[in-house]
């Protein structure tokens, strides 16, 4: 029973049951801590969304059974990088191993939740955490149940030693109330199409496709991934969801390079409406402080996405694993979970991903999205031409997908790629973009 009389109802509360929250739930319950995971939604309701889990993510989620085909629906061998004019293919077969796996997000999350329950964890669906009071002896959470038509919302209080804030891009108010910065917030839109598996393979030329197109978005790619009997396509933008819905309809129904993907669909593309899309907020660029007294912020809430591709499984998994390690150690030492005690979290996060792989990600984000005085993305086109021409460049990309020790990520590979991109720029751009490229050499 949940009461507010005890000093602690649980050791830890995890707010948010996305990938970040459930990995923390698993890690903490597995070591015998009493934990509650709370989500304002019911995350046990199935949905179809496939996510790329790169090989370099797995060291942060070593427990996950990589051969479970319900979770990892296919190996991810091929990525196509595209612009308006050029397409470039990176194929793991060229170097003998896949780039990663395509994971059904729902199944991935359920696996971690079920393990957490097995280890004695508690789940609370459809409760929003509306306030957190940090007290000397504990953290006190206020939970508001979902309001039903005939029943008033119920308020609960629970007391814990420390809180993991894994609220993604939709818990910003809570985050701000606790004095944390918020990352940049963008909107994402996704469409999911079911189709015959053989048609999906025939129609879609790669496991993942990233297309940078100035008329679609100046903040992210039009992306597509293929599962087995469905595929997802979407993009990210700073535009409002309503505008994005109308634009996305136009893209799906008219943009020629993608029309082949929709052949043989049961639901005809002409019959789509804006209500068929899934809208979600997402974040970009890490916040500075990710801990304060009795609180650790992880995953999207902390902006932990590799910015160029909005690759967030890595940030979710790494920050969940690191936060769990730190909390477990402090719990053993009967800490009061002060900001000072929790600083180790920041240090580990910086060394394991932020100062290496993510640092290079920030540079490439700036290079491809901000390096063009105006669209169209000249540097991106030069990158695609380099991929097509240079096997070593394709190999460096393959290494980046697969690197098992991101703490020692080979930055020199990215620098070399940068030089090749510069060489592939049109002559007229070489002069104007020279200072821009030199700046990156110094930063790295
Ligand atoms: C469409 C899309 C496709 C993507 N594809 C990929 C990909 O292929 N590969 C990749 O690496 N990354 C991908 N990303 C990014 C990646 O999925 C995210 O970075 C990652 O899933 C974030 O997980 P999270 O747990 O931090 O947040 P979320 O998954 O957003 O979970 C946050 C949870 O917190 C709950 N919550 C929020 N506030 C409260 C509150 N006050 N009380 C209770 N509950 C609350 C929400 O209901 C939600 O369930 C994609 C992102 C999007 C949007």
Count of all domains? 3
Strand element count: 18
Can you tell me the residue ranges where pLDDT is under 50 for at least 5 consecutive residues? Answer: none
User: What's the architecture of the largest domain, going by CATH?
Assistant: 3-Layer(bba) Sandwich
| CA radius of gyration | 22 Å
What spatial form do the alpha-carbon principal axes imply?
Answer: globular
- Structure annotation, total helices: 12
CATH class of the largest domain: Alpha Beta
Q: Major β-sheet, in short? A: 8 strands, mixed
Strand content: 15-25%
Could you name the CATH homologous superfamily of the largest domain?
FAD/NAD(P)-binding domain
Report, as a whole number of angstroms, the end-to-end distance: 53 Å
The unique ligands bound to this protein are:
flavin-adenine dinucleotide
The pLDDT mean sits at 94
Stated plainly, the CATH topology of the largest domain is called FAD/NAD(P)-binding domain
InterPro entries: FAD/NAD-bd_sf (IPR036188), FAD/NAD-binding_dom (IPR023753), Geranylgeranyl_reductase (IPR050407)
Protein name: FAD-dependent oxidoreductase
Pfam families: Pyr_redox_2
Transmembrane segments: 12-29
